[in-house]
Amino acid sequence: MTTIRTFMTDDHRHCDDLFAEAEQAMAKNNIEAARAAFAHFQSAILAHFAAEEKTLFPTFEAKTGMSMGPTQVMRMEHAQMRALLDEAAAALGAGNTEDYLGQAETLLIMMQQHNMKEENILYPMCDQHLTEELPAVLQHLESELSEA
């Protein structure tokens, strides 16, 4: 049976793969390919954040009464990563590779730390508390992420 942890972790890996495509294009100095790959990555990760913020987090908060806990931290980190995404995209758009590489490095470290917290703490908590809601939540997440 699919769990929130496995489903959302798979989506993290999908986003990581798209990010790696942008990094590989930059390593080859192919700025056009890097722009296209980064745009694809940015849209996938923003869809991931939106699915969590619209569906997963509110359902978890309603069920547990925890609105000031892990979901609040994740939302704050999403906001920080959105700013980094915008800055990295702007640097790529301007052809400023050095600036992009700095933003991308910061973003990568932040994503790794963020994903670890979600995969090892928040998603297992969701699976534990949302047993009855699981099929509906997974269906919502799947449809939100398939639109991206």
Describe the overall structure:
- Pfam families: Hemerythrin.
- This is Hemerythrin.
- It comes from Dechloromonas denitrificans.
- Residues 4-126 form the Hemerythrin-like domain.
- InterPro entries: Hemerythrin-like.
- By secondary structure, this protein is an all-alpha fold.
- The protein has a single domain (4-146), classed as nmb1532 protein domain like (Four Helix Bundle (Hemerythrin (Met), subunit A), Up-down Bundle), CATH 1.20.120.520.
- It is 86% helix and 0% strand.
- The chain is elongated, with a radius of gyration of 16 Å.
- The two termini are 24 Å apart.
- The mean pLDDT is 96.
Write the layout of secondary structure elements.
Blueprint: H1 4-27, H2 31-64, H3 70-93, H4 97-129, H5 134-146
Helix pairs in contact: 1-2, 1-4, 2-3, 2-5, 3-4
Give the SSE string: HHHHH
**What is the CA-based Rg, rounded?**
16 Å
Q: What is the overall shape?
A: elongated
Strand composition percent: under 5%
Tally of separate helices: 5
The helix/strand class is mainly alpha
> What is the CA-CA span between the terminal residues?
24 Å
Regarding quaternary structure, what we see is single chain
Counting structural domains, the number is 1
**Total beta strand runs:** 0
Main β sheet profile:
none
Domain Hemerythrin-like: 4-126
Pfam families: Hemerythrin
Protein name: Hemerythrin
InterPro entries: Hemerythrin-like (IPR012312)
